[in-house]
Structure formats: C-alpha cells, structure tokens
C-alpha cells in the first residue's frame, strides 16, 4: 500500500505540466542526438547541465534522463537505415536491421524497434518501481567474480553469433579484446601498446572504432556491387510502415526475453546496454527454430536487442542512484547533476530522496509514451532520407561522423583513427570477418581484465573463486553450454543445412 | 555484379589477412610478456594481454588453414572513389582546426561528392551551403562544440 | 623554438606592462570570462567551478562561463589555458591531480610546466582523504591497525583507483609506518564504499565526500584524516599527525589559475572576486555539504603552496614506484 502511494506520488510529481514539458524537451533532444551518428547523449547532457542548475533537482533529472533514454531510442535509426551505429549496442541492431532496409522494409524495421523499445522500456520501469530495493541488493551482491563470468558469457555468446564462420567471429572477439588493451593500465599506470603515442594513453575511442568499422566501411563498400539502397520516395506510405500481424506476433516473445535479459544486465553497474543487446540477440539465435535467418533481416533480431537495451537503460538507474556507482560516463554526469543540487546518490537515496526517485521513475513512463508519440511520425521522415541520392547523402553523413567523432574528446587524432578503422572494417567485411563481435570484445575487455585481477586478489590467488561464487558458477556453466552447443555440432549442422539448400535448388 | 569487380587474388588476400592477424598476435604476445605476467594472486599488466595475444595467434592460425582450403569471392569497390572518400576525410581533419568548420566542410563535401561522379554544381552548391549553415547553427551555436567558423 | 617563444612572451608581457596594463585592468572584464574545467561535467572540479562561477560573475560584472575540456587526467584542458592569451579572459579550474600529481607522474610528457606557464590566483578549497575500516572491524585507531598490518604483511586495502591522491597518500602511510599492504584499486569512491559494505575488503582510503557517505550509512568507521588539522565535518576523527604519522599530510585541492603573464592587477581582481564568492551563502552551504574546507589564499600564498605540493606529490609518486614510460 505504501509502495502504491509512493508510486502515485511519483506520478503526481512527474505529471505537472512543468515536468512534462522538460521531459518532452529531454526526450526530443535525446532522439535527435541519438539519430546523429557519433554525437551521442553525452554532448547533449553536458550542454543541458548548466540549465539544470536553475531547475528543481527532480525536474533536472527528468530532463537529463530523458535525453539519455531518448538517445537510446534514436540510436537504432542510423543503424537500420545506413548501417552506421553510434553505440556498441546499436551495432547489434545493424545485424538484422540493415538487411531489412535492403529488402525495402526500413519503415517496418523502425516501427518494430520503436514498439519493442517502448515495450522493453516500460516493462523495465515496472520492475524498477516494484523491485528497486531487491535489485539494489542484487547488484550489491555482485562482486568481481560474477562480473568476470557474465562478461565471459557475453564474449562467448558474441563469438557464437551464427553469422558466417564461427572461427572468424571468435577471431574478431579476440581482436577486439586486444584493441581494448591499448592505453594506460588501470592497476599500474603503465602505458600498454601505445607505441609512445600520447593520444592513445586513454585508449582507442569507442565511437571512432564503431563509426569507422561500420559507417565508414559501409560508405567505402557502397561503390561496389549493387550499391546503396535506393528508395522510391513515393513508396513511403503509412501502410508500408505497418508491420504485418505475422511480424508483430514474431516479435512478442523476443521482446519479453530481451526485456528480461536487459533488466538483469542493467542492474549490474558497468555492464551496460551493449552486453544486454548481444546477450538478447544470441539468446534469440539459440531458441530459434531456424537460426539461419538471423543476419538476413529477422524480426526477432531487432526486437530482442532493442527491448533489451532500452530495458537495461531504465534499470541502470537503480545502481546509479542507490549505490552511487555509475554504469558509464553518461550516468556519471547524471550523478554529477544531482551533486550540483547537493544530493549525493547512495544506499539511503530512496528513503531520503523518495520524491526525486519516484518522480523520476514515473517520468520514465511518461517519457516513454512521449517517445512513442514522437517517434512514429518521425519514421516516415527518416525513411525518406533513403530517397536522397548517395552522392548527396553520403558526403553529408561523412561530415556528421567527422564532427561526432571529433567532438567526443576534441581530438583530430580520433578522426584519423576512425578512417583507419574504416579501411580495416572495409577489408574485414570483404573477407566476411564480422565486426560486431569485435566491438563487444572491445567494450568488455578492460572491464573483464579489471574484474579478473580484482577477483583473484580478493580470492587470494585461487582461481576456484569463480566457482565458489554461485552466480558466477552459473554463468560459467552457461558459457560451457554455449560452447558445447556451437562447437561439435556447428560444422555438421552447416553441412546439413547446405544439403538442404542444395535440395531446394534442385527442385 | 554491378560495377565492382571480383579480384582474382581473393584467396591470396584472405591468406594475407590471416597472416597479418597472426603477426599482430605474435607481436602483441611478445610485448605483453614484456609487461610482466605477475603472480596468480596479483596478475601483472601483461597477463591478460598475453592470454589475448595467444588466443589471437591460435584463432588466426585456424583462419589461415581455412583460407588455404577454401575459396572466397569478394566484391570490391573501384579504388578511385574509395581513395577520394579517404582524402575527403583527411582534408577535413587537416583543415578544421586551422581554417574552421565551414572551409573544412566545404572541401570534404566537394571531394566526397566528386567520388560519386561529376559534380552537378547547382545542386551541390545548394547542399553544401545548407550543410554549412546547418552545422554552424547546430554544432557551434547549438551544442557549443569548440569549433571555429572560419579559423582563428 | 622554446626560447624564442619565452622571449616573445617576455616582450609581450613587458610591452603590455608599459603600455596597456592600467587601462586593461581598469576595464577588465568587459566581456564574459571563460573558466576551463579540464574534467568532465558533473565531476568534483566541475561542481565547485559551477558553484563559484555564479557569484564570481556577479562580482566581476560579467558572466563566468564554464567550458569543460576533459581528457588525459586534466592535462588537456590545463594545456589549453597554459597557451591562452594572458588577458584574464581564459582561466583554469585546476586541482591537485592536473597541477600537482600529473607533473610528477608524466613529468616530460605533459605540454605545460605548472610553475612557469601559470599565474596562480587562489586556492578555493581543500579536502583530506579518510582512512576507513569496515563497521565490524576490531580496529578503532590507526596505531592498532598498523601494528596488526606490520605483523601480517599482505593485508588488502581498497583505493578509488591508481594515481589519485588517496592512492598516493596510502603509499605515504605505508612508508611512514613501515608496513606492507596490498592495494585493490576500484573505479570510484562509491565502489570502495560498496566493497567495504559487501565485506570484500576491511580497510580502505577514500576522498572525504565519499567517506562521509560511508560513515553516515554506517558501513565504515573513520580512523584518521590526512589533513594537518581535523575536518569540521568529522570533528571526532584524529589526524594522522595525532596518530603517530607526523609526515602524513596530504590533501586534495581545487584552485584557480590564469595563464602566466596575466597582469597583476587582473590576477588581483580575479582573486578578490573568488575570495568573495567563497563567502557567498549558497557556496558556503554547499561546501559544507560536500565536506570541502574553503581556503581563499592570496596569489602569493597559492604560488608557494603549489610549489610545495608539486614536491610533496613527486615524493609520493616516487614511493609508489610508478612513472609513465617516456
């Protein structure tokens, strides 16, 4: 009853016209920066931070959080239409989203991601409201052993992505891990693999890597073969954007599974939406009856990861607010925004600042509804972008990615890195080395190393510590299952599959 | 297949990629070893990279065998437009700090558009002008990114 | 090249001193002043910068605009100010990390020399670090803990990362008491608190604002603070100096710098505005909540302080045995 009162109080706070207005500003700004590849929510939040100085802390948080999850909504747009993901999690959406665009179903793909993002986000909010203390305790019980194991699971999952040859996928995971080791070692302060280049002291820029491997590589390969997708502008009608009943049905279960995975991962500070997206995607390939359709425009392949990353973004607020541990740079800035108002997140946040917490949680829900209303009409506009001829569209995209990559740390060096990764990504794609596993390896590498070191230190050098922690042991068992499922059966299955294809050809 | 052509040496290129990955893996492993492996209790700065390096060597070896055994067909882009796109971005990177966002954007868009064939001056000029105005408004006045408009 | 630059700067400063200082300083500031914060928005440096910027702007009659230029441990933004025109319109919110520790860590690789390239204006605030033990620890004072650590080498302690002031201060503690302990670095002060709470570690050092949270939440007991004097927020917690660690005085601080060659009159004006801003009611209140002790030293005092800080931290960096490869 008490809980219900608090939730109602939260909605009362969040639904004042003043707060709805700032929520709307937040999600609108978020959607647009999300769509612009590379720019990301950080620039927008940093921009709005000084404004929040003059706002009530609840209103300030409502607006800043709106930018954050709004950007998550928007980030799938450039991935689906142009194969240019601005974030590591959006790279997963590229896998099946871009093939859908190539098939002329861009509108359907965007509609599905909007709907599943909404579903994933709103269901996660219910979890946030009902189970905040539980989730907080759950996150508390995660120590380094568990983190290491769940990330290992993520990597194993990414390398078994059933697109192309599994060994090439695994090679790319490892290559991503290797890239992530470049920079300053967090334990010793040593510079590793920087070759004396000071610009590499903080490591390779994730945005430069992701935009290079996908966006620039896509532009480079657009001169070959059938070239980029071109759209007949007159074909964009609402009717073409509506998914069929069949497609909607197909996306229901994946949305639920994605939401579940995303909520759990979101509660673990640091793991982030990227891990949630990959795990959700791989879970779909594992439960699917015909996994070979993934990578060719499977509806499940965009529904599950989008539900997952939006759910994780919502639950991520719990560790951020109740443990004071930000999951990423953006969350760190949000904590900073609270601290400007003299409020420090921590274990007593919900009890001492309940008004802010419940107001914020309720605003998530309102924000998601606003996003839905805002995004559906926008789909038509985004899809029309494809009608712009490539000789105009691609140079414009080049300007945007240059500005976006540069703006992350005001570094020209990063623009050159983007170009280098563009060439590398282009060559790798030619020879069917998949880029998404590389990106996940890159994101998880430093975290894994840190947790491995800390777990061993806390476990006094005993590697069995990973099995002594029960949750960690479960994750490791799942890794084993995934490996066993993919290793011995993989080649045999492929043979069977190719035989089937042959038969179909014969007929 | 379109205007791209199948390169004849595709298989050799596939082998070469695996070899390059192997070389990177070896170099990585050696450098990692130099950072120290540490003890089981306090693993060193080189331990994780060492493992990664070894794994990269192993994976690239398997890829190498794969490349030796199978044939691969690739659809490459013609070299000139690819080079032009790369030059366009390099030009932007070289120009944006000394000369400002507008000149850098104009040059990038000109070279980039040229990569797609002869420039149609009227439409291209309009697009470039619109982009310059839009970028200045959005990024310099909107997001307050630390660009200058015309250098200085 | 370097010489020519210095020479040119000297000429510039000279001619300015002769010709324009009086007029410049009188009209200063006639346009907004940019304060560069070399850290990401929302961090400790950013918060104090935004806090004082408002009252400062009111006192100067021109707004003080915050610009975040994060990167490379605060050295990117610091370098921007080091190279800026010395006209008082570009100033730096510097701190212990970028202006005292970084010069010791990355001596030859950072693109500025703190004492040569900056005109220190004033030290805004200082904060000690706090030595913590978990709530059910059997230790109640530094002496017992250190005696135990001496007999049992290899005890674990948590720090909020490597290379920051709490981490280096613990090196000083180990050196001072002659104990061997093993560091478990975490990513932030909040994570250190959580590790104490979860029982992963029993001993930790943390920045004051984070330590206060742990103490208030009842997950940790403070044993000592690292400043020369007790902290008003923790009046019952002794200093290390009181606990047999005479040499253990290490604080983190934030301060304002102008580029070297800024006319004295402008530095003075900035100092007066900042010192007054520190007394602003809102600033006083927030500083109290954040556990920051306001300082407001004069430019001369601050210059001497920075010089001594660079030496102190260089010594601790040497103790830590870590230095960036050239």
Automatic annotation (TrEMBL), chain A:
Keywords: Membrane, Transmembrane, Transmembrane helix. This is Tricarboxylate transport membrane protein TctA. Residues 20-440 form the DUF112 domain. It holds the Pfam family TctA. The keyword Flavoprotein does not apply. It comes from the Bacteria. The lineage of its organism: Bacteria, Pseudomonadati, Pseudomonadota, Alphaproteobacteria, Hyphomicrobiales. The chain crosses the membrane at residues 42-68, 106-135, 170-188, 200-224, 323-344, 356-380, 392-408, 415-435, 466-487.
TrEMBL record, chain C:
Residues 1-25 form the signal peptide. InterPro entries: BUG (IPR005064), Bug_dom1 (IPR042100). Keywords: Signal. The keyword Signal applies. Pfam families: TctC. CDD domains: PBP2_Bug_TTT (cd07012). Belongs to the UPF0065 (bug) family. PANTHER family: BLR1237 PROTEIN, TRICARBOXYLATE-BINDING PROTEIN. This is Uncharacterized protein. It comes from Nitratireductor indicus C115.
């Amino acid at each position: 009853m008490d809980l219900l009162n608090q939730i109602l109080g939260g909605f009362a706070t969040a639904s004042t016209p003043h707060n709805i207005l700032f929520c709307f500003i937040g999600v609108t700004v978020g959607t647009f920066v999300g769509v612009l590849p590379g720019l990301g929510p950080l620039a927008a939040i940093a921009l709005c931070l000084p404004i929040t100085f003059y706002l009530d802390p609840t209103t300030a948080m409502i607006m800043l959080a709106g930018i954050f999850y709004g950007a998550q909504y928007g980030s799938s747009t450039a991935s689906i239409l142009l194969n240019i993901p601005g974030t590591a999690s959006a790279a997963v959406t590229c896998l099946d989203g871009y093939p859908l665009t190539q098939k002329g179903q861009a509108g359907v793909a965007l509609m599905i991601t909007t709907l599943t993002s909404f579903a994933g986000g709103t269901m996660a909010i219910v979890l946030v409201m009902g189970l905040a203390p539980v989730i907080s305790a759950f996150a508390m019980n995660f120590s380094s052993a568990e983190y290491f194991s769940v990330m290992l699971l993520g990597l194993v999952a990414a390398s078994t992505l059933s697109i192309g040859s599994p060994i090439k996928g695994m090679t790319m995971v490892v290559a991503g891990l290797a890239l992530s080791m470049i920079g300053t070692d967090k334990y010793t302060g040593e510079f590793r693999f920087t070759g004396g280049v000071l610009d590499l002291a903080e490591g390779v820029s994730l945005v430069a890597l992701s935009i290079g491997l996908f966006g620039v590589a896509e532009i480079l390969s657009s001169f070959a073969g059938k070239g980029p997708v071109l759209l007949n502008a007159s074909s964009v009608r609402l009717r073409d954007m509506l998914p069929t009943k069949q497609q909607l049905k197909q996306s229901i279960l994946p949305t639920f599974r994605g939401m579940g995975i995303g909520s759990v991962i979101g509660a673990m500070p640091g793991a982030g939406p990227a891990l949630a997206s990959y795990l959700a995607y791989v879970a779909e390939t594992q439960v699917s009856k015909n996994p070979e359709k993934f990578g060719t425009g499977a509806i499940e392949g965009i529904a599950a990861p989008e539900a997952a990353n939006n759910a994780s973004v919502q639950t991520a607020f719990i560790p951020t607010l109740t443990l004071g541990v930000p999951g990423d740079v953006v969350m760190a800035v949000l904590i900073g925004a609270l601290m400007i108002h003299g409020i420090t997140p921590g274990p007593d946040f919900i009890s001492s600042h309940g008004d802010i917490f419940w107001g914020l949680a309720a605003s998530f829900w309102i924000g998601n509804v606003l996003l839905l209303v805002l995004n559906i009409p926008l789909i038509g506009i985004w899809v029309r972008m494809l009608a712009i001829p490539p000789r105009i569209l691609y140079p414009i995209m080049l300007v945007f990615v240059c500005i976006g990559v540069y703006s992350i740390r005001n570094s020209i060096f990063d623009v050159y890195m983007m170009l280098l990764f563009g060439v590398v990504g282009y060559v790798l794609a030619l020879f069917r080395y998949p880029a998404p596993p590389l990106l996940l390896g890159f994101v998880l590498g430093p975290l894994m190393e840190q947790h491995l070191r800390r777990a061993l230190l806390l476990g006094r050098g005993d590697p069995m510590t990973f099995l002594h922690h029960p949750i960690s042991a479960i994750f490791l068992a799942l890794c084993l299952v995934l490996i066993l499922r993919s290793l011995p059966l993989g080649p045999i299955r492929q043979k069977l599959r190719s035989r089937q294809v042959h038969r179909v050809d014969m007929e | 297949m379109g205007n791209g052509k199948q390169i004849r040496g595709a298989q050799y290129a596939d082998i070469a990629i695996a070899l390059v990955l192997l070389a990177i893996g070896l170099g990585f492993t050696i450098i990692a070893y130099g950072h120290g492996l540490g003890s089981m209790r306090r693993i060193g700065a080189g331990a994780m990279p060492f493992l990664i390096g070894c794994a990269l060597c192993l994976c690239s070896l398997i890829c190498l065998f794969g490349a030796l055994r199978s044939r691969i067909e690739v659809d490459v882009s013609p070299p000139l437009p690819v080079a032009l796109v790369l030059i366009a971005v390099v030009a932007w990177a070289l120009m944006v700090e000394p000369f400002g966002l507008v000149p850098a954007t104009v040059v990038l868009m000109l070279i980039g558009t040229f990569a797609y064939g002869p420039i149609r001056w009227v439409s291209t000029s309009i697009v470039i002008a619109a982009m310059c105005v839009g970028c200045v408004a959005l990024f310099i006045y909107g997001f307050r990114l630390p660009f200058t408009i015309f250098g200085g | 090249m370097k010489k020519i630059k210095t020479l040119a700067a000297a000429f510039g400063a000279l001619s300015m001193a002769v010709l324009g200082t009086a007029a410049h300083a009188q009209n200063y500031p006639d346009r907004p002043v940019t304060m560069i914060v070399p850290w990401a928005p929302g961090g400790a440096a950013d918060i104090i910068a935004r806090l004082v910027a408002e009252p400062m702007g009111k006192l100067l009659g021109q707004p003080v605009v915050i610009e975040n230029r994060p990167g490379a441990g605060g050295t990117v933004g610091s370098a921007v100010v080091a190279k800026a025109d010395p006209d008082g319109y570009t100033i730096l919110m510097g701190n212990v990390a970028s202006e005292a520790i970084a010069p010791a860590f990355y001596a030859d690789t950072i693109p500025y020399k703190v004492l040569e390239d900056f005109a220190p204006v004033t030290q805004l605030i200082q904060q000690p670090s706090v030595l913590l033990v978990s709530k059910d620890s059997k230790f109640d004072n530094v002496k017992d803990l250190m005696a135990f650590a001496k007999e049992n080498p290899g005890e674990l302690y948590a720090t909020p990362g490597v290379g920051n002031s709490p981490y280096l201060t613990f090196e000083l503690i180990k050196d001072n008491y002659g104990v061997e302990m093993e560091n478990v670095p975490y990513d932030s002060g909040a994570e250190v608190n959580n590790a104490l709470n979860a029982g992963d570690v029993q001993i930790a050092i943390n920045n004051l604002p984070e330590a206060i949270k742990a103490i208030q939440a009842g997950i940790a007991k403070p044993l000592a603070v690292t400043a020369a004097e007790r902290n008003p927020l923790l009046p019952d917690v002794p200093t290390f100096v009181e606990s047999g660690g005479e040499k253990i005085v290490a604080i983190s601080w934030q301060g304002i710098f102008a580029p070297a060659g800024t006319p004295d009159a402008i530095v003075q004006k900035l100092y007066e505005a900042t010192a007054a801003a520190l007394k602003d009611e809102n600033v006083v209140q927030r500083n109290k909540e954040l556990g920051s002790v306001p300082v407001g030293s004069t430019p001369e005092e601050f210059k001497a302080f920075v010089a001594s800080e660079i030496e102190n931290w260089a010594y601790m960096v040497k103790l830590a045995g870590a230095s960036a490869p050239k």
